[in-house]
């Protein structure tokens, strides 16, 4: 399996250039579920408490670092889209955020990252051991929230997503620094480490509302394709964005030897001299001053960034198709708009 070629379309669902209102789409989504989001945030803060003081200290650092709460927002908005008016989705939104935050803590240790969203990462301040253990604590809190919900179906969805995330991260570790990696392997990585939780978040919204399986499947497809688009944009931004916009320094993936789609495209389209360069800097990790600039020039030459964004738009369109079974309304409009917001980050 590999990525489809970027499609030719006469009436794209997501415009190639970012709309000036793109960021307003995220604001609209937040406004739509404001009360639920505030309740979710209260649940998160309450569940982060512990008599072991290092845990709330490190947790407070994560909260201060910000973040869009995108995954819990998807739980809340999907439940509203399906007509749910109870409170189960609030705890499950907090659960999804705990799973996400735990994986970030672990990822920063594995990647030896010093920055997270433009600020010092937790492992840079508190150390690797504390970050791993607090990540474990957050996973445990997530499982407590799942069991408190009482639904075996919800438990199956979120436990399955947690396992898939771990598999995606391990696969990324396996193919890291390997320029012979395929697009199919890369897609498997991002489906696991990012898209699985997006898909679980949106499916849970349908499940708590007791909607038909066809609607749950459609929302899951929306979430999965949105997650793929989101990660593709993130991987493109690593080679094209300002540090303030991305929340990390440009070229982090390059320095870590991560094999992402921009690298795969530039490598496949390059001549043997260029392939030798990529093997030296990524496989052998022999990086010299000026190598990042040269990598960026090769990506520009072979349109690797532009084509990665085109693939993201393709998956964004697939995500929008997942909303087709649902009646028009503010929830559907907000969920469609946040896909545009994702793509607009690459402008």
TrEMBL record:
<keyword id="KW-0479">Metal-binding</keyword>
<dbReference type="GO" id="GO:0106350">
    <property type="term" value="F:all-trans-octaprenyl-diphosphate synthase activity"/>
</dbReference>
<comment type="similarity">
    <text>Belongs to the FPP/GGPP synthase family.</text>
</comment>
<keyword id="KW-0808">Transferase</keyword>
<dbReference type="InterPro" id="IPR008949">
    <property type="entry name" value="Isoprenoid_synthase_dom_sf"/>
</dbReference>
<dbReference type="InterPro" id="IPR033749">
    <property type="entry name" value="Polyprenyl_synt_CS"/>
</dbReference>
<dbReference type="InterPro" id="IPR000092">
    <property type="entry name" value="Polyprenyl_synt"/>
</dbReference>
<keyword id="KW-0460">Magnesium</keyword>
<dbReference type="GO" id="GO:0046872">
    <property type="term" value="F:metal ion binding"/>
</dbReference>
<comment type="function">
    <text>Supplies octaprenyl diphosphate, the precursor for the side chain of the isoprenoid quinones ubiquinone and menaquinone.</text>
</comment>
<protein>
    <recommendedName>
        <fullName>Octaprenyl diphosphate synthase</fullName>
        <ecNumber>2.5.1.90</ecNumber>
    </recommendedName>
</protein>
<dbReference type="GO" id="GO:0008299">
    <property type="term" value="P:isoprenoid biosynthetic process"/>
</dbReference>
<dbReference type="Pfam" id="PF00348">
    <property type="entry name" value="polyprenyl_synt"/>
</dbReference>
